[in-house]
TrEMBL record:
Keyword annotations from UniProtKB, A to Z: Acyltransferase, Cell membrane, Membrane, Transferase, Transmembrane, Transmembrane helix
Species of the source: Micromonospora ureilytica
Name of this protein: Nitrilase
Pfam families: CN_hydrolase, LNT_N
GO CC annotation, single: plasma membrane
Ranges where the CN hydrolase domain occurs: 205-421
Localisation: Cell membrane
PANTHER family per record: APOLIPOPROTEIN N-ACYLTRANSFERASE
UniProt-recorded Gene Ontology molecular function terms: N-acyltransferase activity
BP term (GO), one: lipoprotein biosynthetic process
Annotated TM spans: 45-66, 73-98, 104-125, 146-169, 175-195
Lineage, broadest ranks: Bacteria, Bacillati, Actinomycetota, Actinomycetes, Micromonosporales
Chief location category: membrane
Membrane protein topology class: Multi-pass membrane protein
Length: 470
């Protein structure tokens, strides 16, 4: 009965602590009931309980995978099973080590399993680093500062290490408490230092963001509805520029243009003293691309082609291959590009301090996908100015502070955005933490395999047999 209760609690915590609108505190608690129960029952019981908990926890995202992202059923099932494998593997491996009295190894090494699972998914699946527990903490600025050192992998590690340490307090209070203090001092110290960083005194820049109602794949600019939308955007842009905007960012895929109709767009939006970044579908003979057009005062056009397209939804488009840096410090990217840490890291390496990002999103994932962009900024010390057609308009500084936010639909913002970024350990070194996790996982598996169980190690040293329960 207690095992079923633990499964239900963990499932509800995962349901509330992950998904499209997670409650950050619940993510830390999710594995804890299962971990506490695991040392009292047999492995197969733990396996069943964890499977039940994970199934409950995934209830909030199955519809998103199938209906919104339109993932094929086998792919959606694979994502769910990946999470199930990581959850069961983490709980069972922690159980094995705690029963052997290897508390420090359980706390500090077992979380590497989940880290490596997320990292493998980011490298092997065509979606980048979009599947990570770390994004659940995106509104907790002290926590996400760790990404500037380790990338998202360090936050995921912490989200598993803490509940394992809490579970170990019952049977091995001294080493468990030591591990908790070490984690607190390490992560907390880095956070305090990061939040206390003083950026250089670069002059802030007045930026405008606008998102009006639009279809998902761009209105042809030579059709009446396209001309009407262009007139509406032109009026909004001119109003923002009149109030001081020097850069205005519009969403992704606002218009559909050809070589013949592109001059119409340029003539309408480039006749101000500001740079305008507008997303469009550009159709040319034999290819169509998802582009961000940077329109300079006077009509000069710089074109960025989206490099990372959404599988299944954008297969009809041709991906781009080149980064675009405007004015030496403004990097340009589009929506899903920011699911790829390597792309953002390249911009930081080339000297960018601000990212200008037209985006789309799918309404239900507006918070989540917008916060992924926030995390990319913190990882690499970049200001992010992002306008999503069906999500959020956001401006964040290099430390992840939300300077301004609005919900798209018929929204605009005008604000003074910081322009100062800074180099981070992660922007210089990349994904070093998964490499460390390989070594930690080897230690964890070795400890579970070759160390015998010790009495008094973690509450109950062996699962109860039926006779014990009577």
């Amino acid at each position: 009965m207690m095992t079923i209760l633990a499964a239900l609690l963990s499932g509800l915590f995962w349901l509330g602590g992950t998904g499209l609108h997670p409650v950050a505190a619940l993510t830390w608690l999710a594995p804890l009931p299962l971990l506490l129960a695991s040392t009292r029952v047999r492995p197969r019981t733990v396996l069943g309980a964890t499977a039940l908990a994970w199934a409950i926890g995934q209830g909030g995202v199955i519809g998103y995978y199938l209906d919104t992202l339109r993932l094929p059923v086998p792919v959606a099932a694979g994502v769910v099973l990946l999470g199930l494998g990581l959850a069961t593997g983490t709980v069972l491996l922690a159980r094995a080590l705690l029963l052997r009295g290897r508390t420090v190894l359980a706390v500090l090494a077992v979380p590497s399993l989940w880290v490596l699972g997320e990292y493998a998914a980011s490298r092997l699946l065509p979606h980048g680093a979009w599947w990570s527990l770390a994004y659940t903490q995106a509104d907790a600025r002290p926590i996400i500062q760790l990404t500037s050192l380790t990338g998202v992998w360090g936050v995921t590690y912490l989200l598993l290490a803490v509940p394992i340490a809490l579970a170990a307090l019952r049977g091995s209070p001294r080493p468990a408490l030591t591990c908790l203090l070490a984690l607190l001092l390490g992560a907390g110290g880095w956070s305090v230092w990061s939040l206390g960083r003083a950026p250089d005194h670069a002059e802030p820049l007045t930026v405008g963001l606008v998102a009006l109602r639009q279809p998902e794949d761009g209105l042809p600019i030579d059709e009446p509805t396209g001309r009407e939308l262009l007139a509406s955007y032109t009026a909004r842009v001119e109003g923002l520029v009149a109030r001081g905007a020097r850069i205005v960012v519009l969403p992704e895929k606002v218009f559909a243009v050809t070589d013949a109709t592109l001059p119409v767009l340029v003539a309408a939006l480039a006749q101000t003293e500001a740079q305008v970044v507008v997303g469009a579908v550009r159709r040319q003979p034999g290819r169509a691309t998802n582009v961000a057009l940077v329109l300079a005062p006077g009509g000069a056009v710089t074109t960025y082609e989206k490099q990372h397209l959404i599988p299944g939804l954008e297969d009809w488009l041709t991906p781009g291959a080149d980064d675009v840096l405007v004015g030496g410090r403004f990097g340009v990217a589009i929506c899903k590009d920011l699911d790829y840490p390597g792309l953002v890291r390249r911009y930081r390496t080339r000297g960018a301090s601000v990212l200008l990002v037209p985006a789309l999103d799918f309404t239900s994932d507006g918070w989540l996908h917008g916060r992924m962009a926030v995390v990319r900024g913190v990882e690499n010390g970049l200001v992010v100015v992002r306008a999503a057609a069906f999500g959020r308009l956001t401006v964040t500084d290099a430390g992840g502070r939300m300077v301004g936010e609005a919900t798209a639909g018929d929204a605009e913002m005008l604000l003074a955005a910081p322009t100062s970024g800074w180099s981070t350990v992660y922007s210089r070194t990349g994904d070093w933490f998964p490499l460390l996790s390989v070594a930690l996982l080897v230690l964890a598996v070795g400890g579970a395999r070759w160390w015998p169980a010790t009495s008094g190690s973690s509450g109950r040293t062996r699962p109860r047999r039926p006779a014990d329960r009577a």
